[in-house]
Write a structure and sequence with these properties.
4 helices; Porin
């Protein structure tokens, strides 16, 4: 039975590789705001979720996990601030079982920088400063995900899911973008072992940019630059494979250890394993629970190599920590991520979930 799941994973890997090779002109790091992650539990574990997610955030991490919902109504909201609060990352999801075998979720994500100062008209034609001409604008990325999951009859313990995502991005009044794509996922449980597989942007996601040249013409001509043109940006497929194992330690304590491998096909990235064809970025996370009420979490991700100022290279990782509490259908999760090894600035993530039947 496990062999069939491995065969399914290999087939998905081959499909993603084929699509990637057909779109060699696609840029790297397209729609990267969707790879920041959502939920205090996930971010406290280094974004390791493909095999273990089972709440309303499954619509984002792996839609197959929605089949494990235990309550009729499931809501999760999150707020985090990155880079000393300059970037706001907000998330809201609602999920519900449709019957004993299927479930549906709707998720909304916004990542944005607000109140950016526009000083293009600060000086008048006579050279005088006009403070009342200063305006403000926002740069924000939005994603709406509609997810569906169902238990499969192909293999005992196999769950399948997919989502449709609509993307909207805007840079003030200067440019807007609309995108559309699909994700697909699977989970399999064998005793205390859990396996997960997610293919993001499985058909590639197309993003159509529309540039408001009237807003930019004056500045671009004055600085001797060419005006940008409308264009199409393609987000290449990404494959995530995960495995996890849970343990019981006495009557009250539980432990969970999980790892994910992210496979990208848009060229060589600064990750642990990389080549011109595929790059592999590993994540590792762990969670210790007491009585199903209190949880302590940790994880590492973003393993990258940096050039030293004094010469040579070194490897650095991003550590993550989190705590959680669950009682009466209410879940509160906090996570802390250090954004850089040489920085005292950390990202604080707060997420709140509520599950109920009436």
């Amino acid at each position: 039975m496990l062999k069939k799941f491995v065969t399914l994973a290999a087939g998905a890997f081959a499909l993603v590789s084929t699509v990637a090779n057909a779109q060699v002109s696609a840029p790297k790091y397209s729609n990267e705001f969707l790879n920041i992650g959502v939920g205090g539990r996930a971010l406290g574990m280094g974004n390791v979720q493909s095999a273990i997610v089972s709440d309303a955030t499954a619509g984002f991490w792996n839609p197959a996990g929605l089949t494990d919902l235990k309550h009729k109504y499931n809501i999760v909201g999150m707020h985090s601030e990155l880079f000393a609060g300059s970037v706001k990352n907000d998330y809201l999801s609602f999920a519900t079982p449709l019957d004993t075998s299927s479930a549906l979720a709707v998720s909304l994500i916004r990542v944005g920088v607000d109140d950016i100062v526009d000083t293009r008209r600060l000086y008048s034609a006579s050279g005088q400063i006009q403070y009342d001409s200063i305006q403000f604008f926002s740069v924000a990325d939005y994603a709406l995900l509609v997810s569906y999951a169902r238990k499969s009859n192909l293999l005992p313990g196999l769950k399948l899911g997919a989502n449709t995502k609509i993307i909207y991005r805007h840079v003030g009044s200067f440019a807007t973008c609309w995108g559309f794509g699909f994700d697909a996922g699977a989970q399999l449980e064998r005793r205390r072992w859990k396996f997960g597989l997610v293919a993001k942007d499985i058909t590639t996601t197309f993003n159509a940019w529309s540039i408001n040249t009237d807003e930019l013409r004056e500045v671009y001509l004055a600085t001797n630059n060419d005006l940008p043109k409308n264009s199409v940006e393609i987000t290449m497929p990404r494959l995530i494979a995960g495995v996890a194992r849970d343990f019981k330690m006495g009557e009250k304590f539980t432990a969970l250890v999980a790892t994910d491998l992210d496979f990208t096909f848009d060229g060589k990235r600064n990750v642990l394993l990389r080549s011109g064809l595929v790059s592999v970025d590993p994540h590792v996370g762990a969670e210790i629970g007491y009585g199903g009420i209190v949880f302590l979490r940790g994880g590492i991700n973003n393993i990258q190599q940096f050039e030293k100022l004094e010469g040579g290279k070194s490897w650095k990782v991003q550590p993550n920590f989190g705590v959680g509490a669950a009682m009466g259908g209410l879940n509160l999760d906090l996570a802390l991520s250090k954004v850089a090894d040489n920085s005292n600035v950390s990202s604080v993530i707060v997420s709140l979930g509520y599950k109920f039947d009436k």
